[in-house]
Amino acid sequence: MTAKTDEVDGVEVALQRVRHPARLFGFGVAMAVVLVGAFVAGLFVKAPTDDALEAAKTVVPVVVTVENRVVDDGFTIPASVTAGKTLDVTITEASIPAPASAGRQESSATGASDERQQAGDRVLVTATAITPGDTIGYGRLLGEVSGRPVFSLPSSVPLYRDLLPAAEGNDVSALQTTLIDLGYYGVRKTGVLDAGTLDAARRLYAKAGYSLPFVAAGVPGIAWREFAGLPTPDTKVVSAAPVGTTLSSDIALLRLQISPAVLTARITAVLKDDLLAGTPVGVSVNGADPAKSSVLAVGAFTTDEESGASGYPITVGLPSDAAIAGDSTIALTPLEKPAAGPAIPVVALRQGTEGVSVTVEAEKAAVDAAKATAAHNLVRVEVLTQQNGWASIKPNPKLPVGTKLVVEP
Fold this sequence. Notes:
Structural class: alpha+beta
Mean pLDDT: 83
Strand content: 25-35%
Shape: rod-shaped
Number of domains: 4
Helix content: 10-25%
Number of strands: 28
Largest sheet: 6 strands, antiparallel, barrel
Oligomer: single chain
């Protein structure tokens, strides 16, 4: 560089001169070339983050497979035993027939003799006719009390008096209906105790080894004390008083099971349509293999006030071979474990206007031929059950096990 002196406003100023101006010009040209090259390179080179952003815009289809598996392993419903109803057949007055020959005069409009019941007569079991476990119906000999038989009749027969021949009333009509139902011929429902009705009653007694009682001196008829009413036919005997037992209002001749013990539980609305009355069901006690039973009844939706539990009350028959103790754990289960079948993940299901369907992944050749990645097949399915993210479906030849399905976004 060289210095040059100039004068500005009377003051001398020294200016520096570039010794090699060509070099400075060349440096500037080089920098310009570098900047242009960098700009051009930037047009063709992409940063890694650019690739990531581009990849994020690409939808990668999720593919699942049709499998053979158990989706729903059934149900386990806690249950408890509800005791059945029992009926005690009590005899508080012994039936002592009137004399066979004429003696005292009739004492009332019913035709009963005042010699029939003596003060101090014991109501005592003198013979047994049935044993615990027996099933009895109407017209059956229940036992012998103070030397006289006791027969079973429907409780709808209102016997409240001793009946002499020609007696009339609703009690006579009901007795005639029962004798007709029991198959005794020669009986007509007239409401009058006629010869045909008495003859049928005589045959009922003779079948058990007895004769009709004398309800008046020398007059056989129907003694109300020799019949016991049962609310239902075919009841089961729980216990029977042995010979020598003195009966009273507290000591029964028989204890009958008029309704059996049952199992009760609550089910949800999901199971309500699967456990209808008559449906076979298993009863598992303390985790053992289930015994076969069936649903007896399903009630309306209720909520227990004490526990707050809600659901549909269900009644199930108690299996005769189920050994249930007071501390037993009882559960209602399917009789057999469900078998495996075709199943798919729930995420593959699509609900449309025409029902539920899945999208089958097309083979690569078909995709290449169509030149479209969306070349998939839509197949309708029938869902049977769902559990834990899986859905069991009705077998479909278009969806064999191993079929790949596309989970669409």
